[in-house]
């Protein structure tokens, strides 16, 4: 088993900065803004003598209310999961009442505790740590997470007890690579985090009746029926004109990056608000990037029959370009229909990664041409000769022929729909690439024989000049 290390502390002491340093990534959103991290963020540590799992948590200070209380519960959960707790304090600000509260949490719930004074670059370690002895949780270790000062030495000491029992993480790495990555995207407050908690069966991410609760993209590995998945909860994406805070801009960037890395996207719509322009834009972007897609209409249980009919008509009218995607209706709060989501994700993923043999593709192409031949262009028939697969996720079908650049868009859509029907590519966009064969005689003139030259001269005498 990998050792688990939790980073805890009051807001803005540098927990997410250290998390990114240890995982050698930018998975955690970092800014000079207290309370930025709200959910537990997991990552595989890559700095130290043995592999380990690192947990980034939100800042706690005591006396939390509302959403801050939920963040504090996330921190306590991380402490109970972890083998080691690293309590971080600000070496430049000195000891505060919030630090004492965090230390008391560590004494109550942590199995093993390390006290780390961050932001100590350029300062005497003895002076920095002098006032933190009063916390009573061990000898302070001075580091700089932003610059990496003494971070390697810290991890050597923290992980020393686990060196002898380390059994490698090749199996976990293989499971991580084989896992299906599922990104959940949508506008703020449509129920994305509630859906994540329902799928996992626990209060894994913070859910609060306030738009913008989720700020960072949180990747959560889990297993269901022997299959591995990575569920990515993302921040809600609003229209650009309504985004003013810098933090929200970075959150949106992280959400779009999560969509780019995912293999299947769950696009969540609020049934009570209907299909908005932002929903259409988000799903259009998802289709443009070639992601497999499942359209999820949440809060379905609160609608009467007339409202449901109206929402279905709006989906048909405003999302005609998503005719390939499965459409599911759920209630994330009560669990209605949530059990059907993972099978739909599996079907979309299988379609997106399907291998199509050249023989099958050529047979399907010939049948499509027989049923509906390509149009004439300037009296010449466009000829499509053969096809082969050019990529997966999304499936790319390459068709070779002549004058393919003049093939009308309507006929290209006909071919896409025909291939989708034959190969059952439900849930994924299909891309076509057309290649026109080069004419080896283009630009070359035939050399005339002497007899042809004489005939040409004889005919030219009758040409009026």
TrEMBL record:
Keyword ATP-binding: no
Binding site for GTP 1: 9-16, 56-60, 118-121
Gene Ontology biological process terms from the UniProt entry: ribosome biogenesis
Keywords: GTP-binding, Nucleotide-binding, Repeat, Ribosome biogenesis
Biased composition (Basic residues): 444-465
Molecular function GO labels: GTP binding; ribosome binding
The protein's assembly and partners: Associates with the 50S ribosomal subunit.
Main function: GTPase that plays an essential role in the late steps of ribosome biogenesis.
Protein name: GTPase Der
Species this chain originates from: Woeseia oceani
Species lineage: Bacteria, Pseudomonadati, Pseudomonadota, Gammaproteobacteria, Woeseiales
């Amino acid at each position: 088993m990998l050792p688990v290390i939790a980073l805890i502390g009051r807001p803005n002491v540098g927990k997410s900065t250290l998390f990114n340093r240890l995982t050698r990534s930018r998975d955690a959103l970092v800014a000079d803004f207290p309370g930025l991290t709200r959910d537990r963020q997991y990552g595989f540590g890559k700095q130290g003598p043995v592999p380990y799992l690192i947990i980034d948590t939100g800042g706690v200070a005591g006396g939390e209310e509302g959403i801050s209380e939920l963040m504090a519960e996330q921190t306590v959960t991380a402490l109970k999961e972890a083998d080691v707790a690293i309590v971080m304090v600000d070496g430049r600000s000195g000891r505060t009442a919030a630090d004492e509260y965090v230390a008391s949490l560590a004494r109550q719930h942590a199995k093993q505790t390390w006290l780390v004074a961050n932001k100590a670059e350029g300062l005497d370690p003895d002076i920095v740590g002098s006032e933190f002895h009063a916390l009573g949780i061990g000898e302070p270790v001075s580091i700089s997470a932003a610059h990496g000062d003494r971070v390697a030495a810290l991890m050597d000491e923290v992980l020393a007890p686990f060196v002898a029992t380390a059994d490698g993480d090749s199996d976990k790495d293989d499971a991580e690579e084989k896992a299906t990555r599922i990104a959940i995207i949508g506008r703020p407050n449509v129920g994305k985090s509630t859906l994540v908690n329902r799928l996992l069966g626990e209060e894994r991410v913070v859910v609060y009746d306030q738009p913008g609760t989720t700020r960072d993209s949180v990747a959560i590995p889990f297993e269901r029926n022997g299959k591995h998945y990575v569920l990515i909860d993302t921040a809600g994406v609003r229209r650009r004109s309504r985004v003013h805070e810098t933090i929200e801009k970075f959150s949106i960037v992280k959400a779009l990056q999560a969509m780019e890395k995912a293999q299947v996207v769950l696009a969540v719509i609020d049934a009570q608000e209907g299909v908005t322009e932002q929903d259409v834009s988000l799903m259009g972007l998802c289709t443009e990037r070639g992601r497999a897609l499942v359209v999820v209409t949440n809060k379905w249980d609160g609608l009467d029959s007339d409202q449901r009919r109206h929402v279905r008509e709006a989906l048909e009218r405003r999302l005609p370009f998503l005719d390939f995607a499965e459409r599911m209706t759920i209630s994330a709060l009560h669990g209605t229909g949530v059990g059907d989501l993972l099978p739909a994700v599996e079907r979309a993923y299988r379609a997106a990664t399907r291998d199509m043999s050249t023989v099958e593709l050529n047979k399907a192409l010939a049948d499509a041409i027989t049923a509906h031949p390509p149009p004439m262009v300037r009296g010449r028939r466009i000829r499509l000769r053969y096809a082969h697969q050019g990529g997966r996720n999304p499936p790319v079908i390459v068709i070779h022929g002549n004058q393919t650049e003049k093939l009308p868009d309507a006929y290209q859509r006909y071919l896409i729909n025909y291939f989708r029907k034959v190969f059952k590519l439900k849930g994924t966009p299909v891309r076509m690439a057309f290649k026109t064969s080069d004419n080896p005689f283009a630009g070359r003139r035939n050399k005339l024989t002497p007899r042809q030259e004489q005939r040409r001269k004889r005919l030219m005498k009758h040409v009026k000049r």
